[in-house]
Write a sequence for this structure.
């Protein structure tokens, strides 16, 4: 599945890992993350993320 | 080095501090700067002349006077902006107008941020990427992107020939002093202010800072020149090892009791928790939210293992200063701590429920049910508070020893 990088801090969302500490289960595609979710590292909004390898 | 040279503003031959000391600032966007601050800027004179960072806008004339004393402003070739925040970049419009031949050097995110603060349409901007260099003559400026240390656009500038790192907010301290170097001020004062700075400005960016420290570990550094406070030339080991502990948020066997009170009922509980923790051998501190500001509380939280947070129920919620302190702490994202909630109430124990929600939101491991007292606590309630304090002391020892 497509990974996404935070444009502000460089943290990478890997769908295989999810963000379980913040309620996003492993296996969740980026598009399916709730809109109010923020980058766990810097607090940037979901709209601040771009696709990455 | 002669005494006047050692005590002056010369970092290395041809590299001078040209910033400003803010002796009177006591409220830095809410951060209580009890010792004032400095806005550090540095001038490098080589075949080309480069100014590293500027100062807060009201100090622009001071900066320009300091630069003019060393160099013709028309001969300034580069103004490097490591960080777009107004305490360092606020003077850029004035400085670039006064230095007509200067190019502004920054990374792409910094250029974008500056464009949202200032009218940059007339500026000549030289965008640099991570690892890029500019040759000044004998010396080189090497740029290291350091996102989120402290904003997305932040970067360090490194001069390999002098083993000198301009670390922007990293390793800074809000400390006004006539001395420019770490060995000219009592080390405990510098480290205490560096800790307060880290806790209040950088605590939530421990992840990126840890990665930056690893990357910077590959640089040969003998001097670190931050954008606030004194320059590290003697005690680098002390500040680097302190940063390693702070980034890891390494806990001490310390229990904090943070509370507010109306008629001293919650305060009596707070005292009992604190006494219980101290009697059980932990370092214990009582912090009244209206007596001790959030800046000091955040600094204490940085290396505390356990937190007891207390408030009576007022207007069916927690007291406003506790809400302010907890909102501030939640934003700083401490991690790896344990704690519990306590408080008195008259007819609805909402406060302790809300305090427990704050602890959960802060990812504090809640290690006990809230301690409550209807109106004033009786002897049995206070015994329960002392026992909870002893339990927190035990937990704090475990956490400090690296266990959970």
């Amino acid at each position: 599945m497509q990974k996404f990088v935070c444009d502000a801090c460089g943290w990478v969302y890997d769908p295989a890992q999810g963000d379980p500490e913040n309620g996003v289960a492993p296996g969740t595609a980026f598009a399916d993350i709730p809109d109010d979710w923020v980058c766990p590292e810097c607090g940037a909004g979901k709209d601040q993320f771009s696709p990455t390898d | 080095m002669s005494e006047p040279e050692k005590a002056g503003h010369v970092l290395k031959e041809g590299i001078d501090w040209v910033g400003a000391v803010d002796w009177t600032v006591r409220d830095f966007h809410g951060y209580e700067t009890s010792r004032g601050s400095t806005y550090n800027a540095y001038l490098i004179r080589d075949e080309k002349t480069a100014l590293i960072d500027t100062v807060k806008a009201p100090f622009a004339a001071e900066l320009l006077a300091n630069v003019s004393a060393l160099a013709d402003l028309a001969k300034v070739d580069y103004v490097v902006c490591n960080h777009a925040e107004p305490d360092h970049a606020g003077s850029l419009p004035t400085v670039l107008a006064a230095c007509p031949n200067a190019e502004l050097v920054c990374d792409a995110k910094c250029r974008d941020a500056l464009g949202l603060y200032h009218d940059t349409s007339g500026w000549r901007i030289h965008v640099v990427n991570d690892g890029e260099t500019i040759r000044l003559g004998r010396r080189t400026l090497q740029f290291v992107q350091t996102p989120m240390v402290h904003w997305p656009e932040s970067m360090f500038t490194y001069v390999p020939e002098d083993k000198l790192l301009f670390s922007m907010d990293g390793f800074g301290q809000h400390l006004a002093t006539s001395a420019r170097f770490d060995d000219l001020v009592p080390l405990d004062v510098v480290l205490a202010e560096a800790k307060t700075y880290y806790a209040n400005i950088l605590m939530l960016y421990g992840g990126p800072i840890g990665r930056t420290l690893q990357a910077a570990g590959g640089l040969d550094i003998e001097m670190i020149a931050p954008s606030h406070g004194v320059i590290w030339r003697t005690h680098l080991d002390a500040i680097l090892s302190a940063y390693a502990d702070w980034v890891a948020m390494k806990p001490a066997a310390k229990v904090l009791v943070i509370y507010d009170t109306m008629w001293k009922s919650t305060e009596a509980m707070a005292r009992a928790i604190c006494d219980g923790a101290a009697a059980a051998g932990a370092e214990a501190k009582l912090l009244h939210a209206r007596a001790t500001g959030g800046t000091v509380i955040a600094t204490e939280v940085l290396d505390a293992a356990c937190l007891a947070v207390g408030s009576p129920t007022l207007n069916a919620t927690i007291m406003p200063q506790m809400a302010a302190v907890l909102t501030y702490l939640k934003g700083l994202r401490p991690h790896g701590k344990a704690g519990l909630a306590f408080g008195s109430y008259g007819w609805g124990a909402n406060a302790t429920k809300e305090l427990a929600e704050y602890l959960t939101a802060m990812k504090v491991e809640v290690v006990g049910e809230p301690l409550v007292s209807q109106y004033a606590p009786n002897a049995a309630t206070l015994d329960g508070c002392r026992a909870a304090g002893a339990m927190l002391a035990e937990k704090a020892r475990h956490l400090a020893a690296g266990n959970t």
About this structure: The two ends of chain B are 51 Å apart (CA to CA). Chain B has 13 helices and 22 strands. The mean pLDDT of chain B is 96. The longest strand of chain B covers residues 252-259.
